[in-house]
């Protein structure tokens, strides 16, 4: 079995895959809160307990890889895999994408999870494509040709926006996200719920339209750099926001984990 870890600002998401190259089926997945501070032993215990819950033995894991946007955890992840799993885990770096043409002024500022997503989307759907990840932040990234990343956008995540709204206004209550039946809310609670939903739905659909108009023509054909891009969405809130999109996107729940499996397949050839 292969273990993939996506270490984000809010969560560590893990995936278990078959060792077979080209098999992108997520056999098992788990999610941990990203700790602000932890020891190697504590982190190892958390991951091991998740694997135990899935009835996966440590010895079943033959290879592993992780991408991280939390550099302070990288050493602990590497160390625990050596101590507890007796394997050297691969850490994703920008060098893994040396075949890509990346239009980014400061390459080190480009989150590795975004590149992993682009690789996975391109392999699954071809280019051009727009990849939208509903994580702690909402990232929108664009691949024009098979290996040409032309840039992207970063928006505040939905939970961040909702939290900021209630924290900065004394009389607005905390609410759970809920799909609205109509645009206008008839209570403060529904007003917030509807406002958040339509804010992101409208903004993201408008951004997609603007990207298509500014960077792509009406030509068609897979891998044609000027054909309309395929829109791929991932992240827990993706189906909530995109369910009423005029043009339904392709939803891939574990896109980052799948991209990590693709990289591990390449490494283990």
CATH fold field value of the largest domain: Nucleotidyltransferase, domain 5
The best one-word shape is: globular
Say how many strands there are.
Answer: 11
Q: Based on the coordinates given, report the CATH architecture of the largest domain.
A: 2-Layer Sandwich
- Count of the separate structural domains: 2
Measured as a percent range, the helix fraction is: 25-40%
CATH top level assignment of the largest domain:
Alpha Beta
Oligomer: single chain
Order of helical and strand elements: EEEHEHEEHEEEHHEHEH
Sketch the major β-sheet: 6 strands, mixed
In percent, how much strand structure appears in the residues?
A: 15-25%
The CATH H-level superfamily of the largest domain is: ATPase, nucleotide binding domain
CA-to-CA gap between the ends? Answer: 15 Å
Spatial strand order of the main sheet: 6-9-8-7-10-11
Low-confidence stretches: none
Mean pLDDT: 90
The DSSP helix count reads 7
Radius of gyration: 20 Å
Global structural class? alpha/beta
Brief descriptors of the model:
single chain; 269 residues; alpha/beta; Nucleotidyltransferase, domain 5; 2 domains; six-stranded mixed sheet
A few lines on this structure:
This protein is α/β, with parallel strands linked by helices. The protein is 35% helix and 22% strand.
